[in-house]
Amino acid sequence: MKYEVIDNFLPQDQFDNLKKLATGPDMLWHRVNQLNDKHNEKEDFDLMFVHLLFESNMYPPSSTFFEYFAFIQDRLDCKSLRRMKLNLYPHTSEIRTHTPHIDYDFEHKGCILSFNTCDGATVLEDGTKIDSIENRALIFDASKPHSSTSTTNARARYNLNINYF
Fold first, then answer.
1. 8 A C-beta contact, residue 46 and residue 100
2. Which range among 31-35, 49-53, 55-59, 126-130 shows the weakest confidence by mean pLDDT?
3. 100 within 8 A of 126, measured Cβ to Cβ
4. What is the pTM of this model?
5. Residue 16: CB partners within 8 Å, gap ≥ 6?
6. Cis-peptide into 60, omega within 30 deg
7. Rounded-to-integer distance, Cα 84 and Cα 98, Å
8. Domain with 120 in it: what CATH number?
9. For an engineered disulfide with 10, which of 14, 21, 22, 77 has Cβ 3.0 to 4.6 Å away?
């Protein structure tokens, strides 16, 4: 599977501003009890929090916070944005790898930008594990199966998930 990992994806001052927003007390989170359509009823840890910044079928953008994150499209050379959302995976007592999923069933790019360093990761279809490192971006084909994980050494795992062309 072809993918790209970019450390220090954003200039430090831009990253720090976004991290402060994403992990700060003013961010509004919505609980999602089912991480994806491949939900496993035996997985009692199948829980996350999401803040939808932008969805292509919604105008105006879903969130007033979108304006702070919109510039990342230029960094990605994005021609068309499909979705942009913030994810928060709560701490668990042991690492939990969530059920594999695809973001959309058509070929497109995905970018996951980590806001904190922790023992969480994104696991690609071939088993490649990309660790959550602060200001690290993973760019990959999000129409291929991949999994998120929880974290054991931080209060939560925070990232920005972008789907685009």
1. no
2. 31-35
3. no
4. 0.92
5. none
6. yes
7. 20
8. 2.60.120.620
9. 14
Tally of domains in the chain: 1
**Tokens coding 144:** 């291929």
Mean pLDDT of 52-74: 90
Comparing CA positions, the residue from 134, 163, 116, 161 lying closest to residue 8 is 134
> How far apart are the C-alpha atoms of 3 and 47, rounded to whole Å?
26
Q: Which residues pair with 88 in a beta bridge?
A: 49, 158
- In terms of Cβ atoms closer than 10 Å to its own Cβ (0-12, 13-18, 19+), residue 93 is exposed
**3-state DSSP assignment of residue 32:** strand
CA 85 to CA 65: how far, in whole Å?
10
What's the half-sphere exposure (Cβ side, CA atoms, 13 Å) at 55? Answer: 9
Q: Give the domain extent around 58.
A: 3-164
CA 59, 62, 67, 72 dihedral sign is: negative
Residue type, 34: Q
Contact 5, 130 (CB under 8 A): yes
CA 19 centroid distance within chain: 13
Dig out the tokens for 32 from the structure: 């999602």
Q: How confident is the model at residue 59 (pLDDT cuts 50, 70, 90)?
A: confident
